[in-house]
Design brief:
alpha/beta, Arc Repressor Mutant, subunit A, D-Maltodextrin-Binding Protein, domain 2, 5-stranded mixed β-sheet, 10 helices, 12 strands, 40% helix
């Protein structure tokens, strides 16, 4: 049995679409369909069925996918044995959202490592759905995801379906981030509607489980002018250079504000979000993972206990 086909099936389940899965896997749709059919023939039962919302696992298919994910995770851990230089290696593998306070925790973690021991740290910024896929597939042991409070139930159900556990990290209202030269930078009170005339910078990673990919995402104050970026440094450059640009963000550390000449303000009607730590069921935290989590809460507290009026 070809375990590569396991990865194909897991991607189809994650995207609920043969077409999207093929695109993500950089292969043709006919080849992916053929591979799934070969896997089903080998197993002797159908893994997926078509529904009005796309492709969904059958009852036996869902059971198979749980085993497939576990097998791939074990294979990943077996392969990692040959890469570990010693039992004293300082290791961390984590997938995180594009958020400055979380990035700050990563910096603190790396700075805390001993220069006398080997280091293997793997950090990737990703969307919530990508992070869930990374952990489910065994690519990462730990993750942090961000979701809007209005979509929290969807994410909690999805995490349970994927055999993942979670711990709350932070519930917060997003702030408006813009240049200190922005026309609204000195406004005495901000309303979400005040932003509709300005250029919004946003991350293009707002997918929500069980909702169609084309479902519009309602953001307060969003007009028809929007630029989507994939990484944080690009967003700061745009905000600093384009006077009328703004962005909804979690609180940003002062060091980033000073570096780029930005200000952040509370706003009436701001989106409410939750950050969560996610990991496989039964996962036992290493001493380095626990240290990173402690530093996450420390970094969160640094930006949470401030006045953003």
């Amino acid at each position: 049995m070809n375990t590569l086909h396991f990865k194909y099936a897991i991607e189809v389940e994650r995207t609920r679409s043969i077409t999207q899965a093929a695109e993500n896997l950089f292969m043709g749709q006919p080849n992916l369909s053929k591979a799934i059919k070969e896997l089903e023939d080998t197993l002797g039962f159908v893994i997926f069925q078509r529904t009005s919302k796309g492709v969904a696992p059958t009852a036996k298919g869902s059971e198979f996918l749980v085993y497939a994910r576990n097998i791939l995770a074990q294979l990943e851990k077996m392969e990692s044995l040959s890469d570990a230089e010693s039992a004293d290696t300082q290791q961390l593998s984590v997938s995180i959202p594009r958020s400055s306070y979380i990035s700050g925790a990563v910096t603190r973690f790396v700075a805390s490592l001993s220069p006398e021991k080997a280091v293997q740290v793997n950090i990737q910024e990703a969307s919530a759905m990508q992070t869930i896929a990374h952990i489910t597939d065994g690519q990462f042991d730990l993750g942090v995801i961000r979701c809007g409070k209005e979509h929290e139930t969807y994410f909690l159900d999805y995490l349970s379906d994927k055999q993942l556990e979670h711990e709350p990290l932070w519930d917060f209202e997003k702030l408006v981030l813009f240049s200190n030269r922005h026309p609204l930078a000195q406004a005495p009170l901000l309303h979400a509607e005040d932003l509709s005339a300005y250029l919004q910078i946003t991350h293009s990673d707002h997918a929500v489980p069980y909702l169609t990919p084309t479902a519009p995402r309602k953001e307060p104050g969003r007009g028809i002018r929007c630029v989507q970026v994939q990484e944080r440094c690009g967003q700061f450059d745009l905000l600093a250079e384009i006077e009328g640009a703004y962005m909804w963000t979690a609180p940003v550390p002062d060091s980033w504000l000073e570096r780029f000449g930005l200000v952040q303000r509370a706003c009436l009607g701001a989106p409410q979000c939750r950050d969560m730590i996610v990991y496989p069921k039964g996962h036992k935290f290493t001493v380095y993972e626990r240290r990173f989590v402690d530093l996450l809460f420390e970094a969160k507290n640094d930006v949470a206990l401030r006045d953003y009026a």
